[in-house]
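Supplementary Note 3. Input sequence used for the single-chain structure prediction.
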Amino acid sequence: MNFKPYFFIVSYVLLLTSCKQTTDDLLDKAYKLNTQKKYDKAIEIYNEVITRNSKIQLAFYNRGFAYLQIKKYKEALADFNKVMALQTHGDFVITYNKDLPYADDETRTQVPYNDALYQRAQVKYFMDSLRSSFTDFQRLVDNNYEEKSNCMSWQGTIYIKSGMTNEACEYFFKAKQFALSDEDRKDAEEMIKTYCGQTNNNR
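The predicted structure, written as discrete structure tokens, is reproduced below.
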């Protein structure tokens, strides 16, 4: 099961369309370091961006991803929580139109709320906060998140880690059913083959 770091593509598009160069140059440099797996150096640059403006969601999000890759889970969790907090007002999640010609840095560098939730769910899994991780993934499934199948595979994996194979298999079969790509379907089939037995693979 892969991590699907598709947010980098979003990040790069945002950077190409930006007007103010100082912050954008730093984000672009950190982005390239992340893609080169030079996570510690990328984190240093994201720290600088955040020091300048503590409402740049993209800096928190990509720094959280970098922390996740080097297994600094506590720091990653804090960053993904911050992204979500920056979009939460009371009981509502508010997203501004980043394509407006007068959009500022904070608006242009927004990250989709559910993307941050998806990353947070993974972090919680690696921190052994399994129940909380499962709940986050379920929120994404309920919201019909684009990675719905992948979320179900993660939920099945949580059940496996909890020693509940039968429940896990139910989620792996659901993941296969809702897969939108060949990759997700193959991931689900591999989990079924590994944990649920060949005889159930045609279900």
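The two ends are 20 Å apart (CA to CA). The beta strands are 88-89, 92-93.
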